Amino acid sequence: MLIGADGLESDDNFGPAERVLREAFAAAEERDEDISVRQALEVSTGWQRADAELRRRVDYLVNSSLEHEYGSPARLLSSWYGFEDEEFNGEDVLFPNGFDQIVSHLAQGLNVRFSADVVQVAPGFVRLSDGSQVSADQIICTLPLGVLQSGRVQFAEPLAQSRRKAIEGIGMGLLNKCLLRFERTEWPDDVDWIGWLGPRSGFWAEWVSLARTLKAPVLMGFNAADQATEVEKMNDRDTVAAAHDALRGMFGSNFPAPLSSQITRWGQERHTLGSYSFNAVGMGPHLRRELGGSDWEGQLWFAGEATSTQYFGTAHGAMLSGIEVAQSVI
User: Fold this and answer.
1) Most buried in the list 22, 116, 126, 298, measured by CB within 10 Å?
2) Has this prediction a pTM greater than 0.90?
3) Which helix (H) or strand (E) segment is 90 a member of?
4) Which 8-state DSSP code applies to residue 285?
């Protein structure tokens, strides 16, 4: 379901907008060097000939299908490699009791230490923020790319030059969610996804209704890339107010205020400093291969979603990379 800025249901006619995008990407493929999705679009013939309404729909597609998918602003996303990931077959699945069920299951029988950050990785041991050390003949590092880029965790020995370049060259994206619970379902209960062509491009443009799947009056709004960075700077009250304003723009001024909310701010979360990685302009898939694998003559290994060439930006990409590295260590 797609709703226009005037609150009326859109005709969903995105054929011309999709053609503009396809032609822009095809032209970008013929260039001698990689350029961003935004640049590829703006230099294209289709964009330059498009009127304001067509450009508005193209921008919506870029935001909803690319920026939300990869967490990257279109101005940074590679037009050559930005969407070269693969997908599993099958339907989407929700975890009513929380996604951490996967982690809890995998952690059975392991000695997991909490409440102490890793501050240094060295050959033979890991130093924690409480001053203690954990000895290990081999170490698998699965720190999120944002944390690696921040330099907050020190490596006692220099990493391979190719790995350092990979850490610098791969992009770290941002996608945030705002979940709102209401007294009852005040929106169409026969849809799951709701799109909004609002007055500010990319803000609160994508929503998921949980009414059908969880039998709960809950809406989940998304912001990605630059819009997510801007919304992250707002406090909870202002974020909920902005989301409510968007819903009133979609469904009318009498749309009720939510009873409660949950808000993510992955860019400010010190243990992630972003949501997941993306293929930035100028980088190729080889950077992900160079980030993964071994260092320090096999004493240090790297895994995680950012090392996956096929499934980057996903939990299954992270898990599969960990399994592959663990098998190599063994």
Assistant:
1) 126
2) yes
3) none
4) T
Task: Return d(Cα 266, Cα 232) in angstroms, integer.
Answer: 9
pLDDT of 285? 85
Task: Choose among 203, 206, 182: nearest CA to 194.
Answer: 206
Distance CA 276, CA 288 (A): 13
pLDDT tens, position by position, 289-315: 999 999 999 999 999 999 999 999 999
Taking a C-beta distance cutoff of 8 angstroms, is the pair 256, 183 a contact?
A: yes
Label residue 305 exposed, middle or buried (CB < 10 Å: 0-12, 13-18, 19+).
buried
For the chain, the distance separating the N- and C-terminal CA atoms, rounded to the nearest angstrom, is 50
Whole-angstrom distance, CA of residue 290 vs CA of residue 294: 9
Which residues of the chain form beta strands (DSSP E)? Answer: 2-4, 118-122, 125-128, 133-135, 139-141, 154-155, 171-173, 175-181, 193-197, 206-209, 218-224, 260-263, 276-278, 293-295, 300-302
Q: CATH classification of 101-172+272-329, choosing from 3.40.1350.10, 1.20.1250.20, 3.50.50.60, 3.30.56.10? A: 3.50.50.60
How far out from the chain centre does Cα 125 lie?
32
